[in-house]
């Protein structure tokens, strides 16, 4: 018998990861990340990978481990690997949590009848009030600007990887890094100069990245397709964050 799949989905920065960890703690189920950028282990801070402390002993699985130089894994490739990860987890678990906000991967899943044979629980997170979203996003970016759990900060990550010109395009295609790279260029700063910003200028960068997260969340909200009815039978409904 196929396992039950609990899908926790919605735009960026709406609390999906924390909800997935809480659900995993309650049930002992593994969490498979649907975030394609998080497959790049070289950018744990910039991709938003939760730290071991944030995971609180729960199991989090990425569809693959991919070098940043190869770019973010395409949705169709991630989809094939996701099927394998679900099959592997199904050998040991009756419930599997799927969490993430990759529009292209989720829409690829929705278009594939393969998933219709599973029992589903669906927990959708919503963008909610933009002002509240921006407040949370600013706090998140400030946190990412600090070292946590033995990890480099977002800016330290960017500066180190920027040393390799082959990574410039890949970095410029990722939320957060894209704004930071443009921010440095507009001020005629080397990317390494981002590590020495004064407090006021640093807050300008925080605001820019938070605004990009809001823009991305709005785009995600527009682009998500509706789940098939068969995925909604045991759903928990939407959550407004």
Descriptive account of the structure:
With 241 residues, the chain is an alpha/beta fold. It has helices spanning 16-27, 44-47, 52-55, 75-90, 103-110, 130-144, 154-162, 168-172, 177-186, 199-223, and strands at 4-9, 31-33, 60-62, 95-100, 119-126, 237-240. It folds into two domains: 4-127 and 228-240, P-loop containing nucleotide triphosphate hydrolases (Rossmann fold, 3-Layer(aba) Sandwich), CATH 3.40.50; 130-217, Crystal structure of tRNA isopentenylpyrophosphate transferase (bh2366) domain (Helix Hairpins, Orthogonal Bundle). It is built from ten helices and six strands. The protein has a six-stranded parallel β-sheet with strand order 3-2-4-1-5-6, with helices on both faces. It starts with a strand and ends with a strand. The model has no long low-confidence stretch (mean pLDDT 94).
Task: Give the structure's gist in a few sentences.
This protein is of the alpha/beta class and 241 residues long. 45% of the residues lie in helices and 12% in strands. The chain folds into two domains: 4-127 and 228-240, P-loop containing nucleotide triphosphate hydrolases (Rossmann fold, 3-Layer(aba) Sandwich); 130-217, Helix Hairpins (Orthogonal Bundle).
Tags for this entry?
single chain, 241 residues, alpha/beta, Rossmann fold, Helix Hairpins, 6-stranded parallel sheet, 10 helices, 6 strands, 45% helix, globular
What does the main sheet amount to? Answer: 6 strands, parallel
First-last Cα distance: 34 Å
Q: What class would the helix/strand composition place it in?
A: alpha/beta
Q: How large is the radius of gyration?
A: 18 Å
User: Number of helix segments?
Assistant: 10
Order of helices and strands: EHEHHEHEHEHHHHHE
Number of domain modules: 2
CATH topology of the largest domain: Rossmann fold
């Amino acid at each position: 018998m196929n396992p039950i799949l609990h899908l926790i989905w919605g735009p960026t920065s709406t609390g999906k990861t924390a909800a997935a960890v809480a659900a995993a703690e309650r049930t002992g189920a593994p969490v498979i990340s649907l975030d394609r950028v998080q497959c790049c282990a070289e950018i744990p801070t910039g991709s938003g990978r939760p730290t071991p402390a944030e995971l609180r002993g729960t199991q989090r699985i990425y569809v693959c481990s991919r070098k940043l130089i190869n770019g973010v894994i395409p949705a169709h490739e991630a989809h094939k690997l996701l099927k394998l990860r679900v099959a592997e987890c199904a050998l040991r678990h009756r419930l599997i949590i799927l969490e993430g906000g990759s529009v292209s991967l989720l829409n690829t899943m929705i278009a594939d009848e393969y998933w219709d044979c599973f029992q589903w629980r669906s927990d959708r997170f919503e963008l909610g009030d933009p002002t509240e979203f921006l407040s949370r996003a600013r706090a998140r970016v400030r946190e990412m600007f600090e070292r946590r759990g033995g990890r480099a900060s977002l800016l330290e990550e960017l500066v180190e990887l920027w040393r390799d010109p082959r990574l410039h395009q890949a970095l410029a295609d990722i939320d957060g890094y894209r704004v930071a790279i443009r921010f440095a260029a507009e001020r005629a700063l080397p990317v390494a100069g981002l590590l020495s910003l004064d407090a006021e200028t640093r807050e300008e960068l925080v605001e820019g990245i938070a605004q990009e997260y809001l823009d991305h969340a709005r785009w995600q909200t527009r682009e998500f397709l509706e789940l098939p009815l068969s995925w909604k039978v045991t759903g928990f409904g939407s959550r407004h964050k």
